[in-house]
Amino acid sequence: MLHATPAQMGMLIALQTLPFALFSLLAGVWLDRRSKHPVLLWSEFLFGCVLAVIPVCYWLGLLSMHVLYAVGWLSDGCRFRGRRQRGTGIRGATGWS
């Protein structure tokens, strides 16, 4: 389909993990001071919107590795914030610290 090279796939994986490495401490501090439910809902909604870009670009004939790079970067940023909030909600509900 896109005939991606191993180097391009490596770049895609790197771009998917970079938001966690770059923003985890700042996002953690910011998210600890927010209400958990709205952040979780918005992160899941944005994650779905970002992933919806892939089939739309495919149908329009615009799908390329650059689109996948952007989707990888943005989707991990959305999912990271949601995972962070989901984890604090579970720990708070179970009483674990």
Instruction: Report the uncertain regions.
Output: none
Helical residue percent? Answer: over 70%
Total number of beta strands: 0
Q: In percent, how much strand structure appears in the residues? A: under 5%
Net shape: flat
How many distinct helices? Answer: 3
Query: What do the pLDDT scores average to?
Result: 81
Q: What structural class results from the helix and strand content? A: mainly alpha
Could you give a short account of the major beta sheet?
A: none
Q: Please state the CA-atom Rg, rounded to the nearest Å.
A: 16 Å
Element pattern in H and E: HHH
First CA to last CA: what distance? 47 Å
Topology, please?
Blueprint: H1 6-32, H2 36-60, H3 65-94
Helix pairs in contact: 1-3, 2-3
Give an account of the 3D structure.
The protein has 97 residues and is an all-alpha fold. The chain has a domain at 30-87. The protein has 3 helices and no strands. It has helices spanning 6-32, 36-60, 65-94. Helix 1 (6-32) runs parallel beside helix 3 and helix 2 (36-60) runs antiparallel to helix 3. The longest helix has 30 residues, at 65-94. The radius of gyration is 16 Å and the shape is flat. The mean pLDDT is 81.
Overview features:
mainly alpha; 97 residues
Give a nutshell description of this structure.
The protein has 97 residues and is mostly helical.
